Amino acid sequence: MIMCFYVSLLIPSLSIKQDVSFGYDDNFMRFSPLEIDSYHPENYTDNDYLGDAKTYDSAIISPSIQFTISNKIFDAYKTNLIFRTKYTEYTSSNNKSYISFLGRFEFKLASYSWIKLSYSLIPEYYLRTYIDRDVFPLEHYPCDFSNETVSISYSHNVPINKTWMDYKLILNNQFYNENFTEYDSQILGFEGTIKSKLFSNYYMSLTYLYYNSNNISYHDSQIIESTKIDRSYIRNGFKINAKKYFSNFLISSMSFKLNFSQRLYDLDSWYYESDNWKIYNDYDLRLEISKKISNKITAQITARHFFRDVFSSQSDEVVWVEDYKNHHRNEVWLRFTYTIPVY
């Protein structure tokens, strides 16, 4: 029997989680109100204002699958190895559809104490068409980039009942296609979060975030138009999450999330002498309602509103920069999750 006990410690468990989300976004290309209200000749070409999209809104279908391999060593130590892939399809734009990959290793040190290593990759994420100002005549070209993120986090409990802290370091690489390499960036970030289940049937968290983005393609003395301005920025903000659990009720949980971040661009330049700057204020509000249908199936409804306020120096040197536009959008999602314990 003792031998069986030790053997059982070495045999991991495997679970598979499948989910599919159905969504709608009323401004999936993130156009400003001025752009939406402006006249469009309806050419529908790759270099067109709308790219391959024929509408400003889109339905979205997003299936994913996740494999979790878990192993428990005695009572205190546990490991999880997680692999996840997700495909997101926009019915209004083939270019906008993308695939993502995630791998994560988790090691439990003690109650509320984990070390987590994570790697994620979106090989190609399409934004929209922008004007490439290094090519004449000035025309719209598809703009996409690869998004690679590596992170490590550590959590531990604090001297408050059912409350813990989480610290995360992030490295994010964003490399753009040949028309927009002037935006290539390497981003270092930190997120500190306090999480609590102090009150019965409630979960709350508060996060402070700080990111430093280095525009690695900006170099002094380059002549081409697009590299005259340094697009490095500082981003800071906070996240609030408040969740209520229900038992024997129509819904299983309800949560409210508020994310705010500010990006500050100094827009240093080896060419321009003006004091150029711009600031993005991003507000992201979400309401999520979930219902546990069975031990294996959960349904979730999410409503999201996002809006961006932009302020800039309004000098002639930065008017041409394409990406500093106010915009807002609304999303609605219906998600079904099915978890299968394999062994």
Could you give me the name of the CATH homologous superfamily? monomeric porin ompg
- Second rung of CATH, namely the architecture: Beta Barrel
What is the level 1 CATH name?
Answer: Mainly Beta
Any idea what the shape is?
globular
Distance between the termini: 20 Å
Spell the H/E element sequence. Answer: HEHEEEEEEEEEEEEE
Could you characterize the architecture of this molecule?
The model is unreliable at 1-8 (pLDDT under 50). This protein has a single domain, classed as monomeric porin ompg (Porin, Beta Barrel). It has a 14-stranded antiparallel barrel with strand order 1-2-3-4-5-6-7-8-9-10-11-12-13-14. It is built from two helices and 14 strands. With 343 residues, the protein is mostly beta strands. The protein is 4% helix and 61% strand.
Short synopsis of the structure:
With 343 residues, the protein is mostly beta strands.
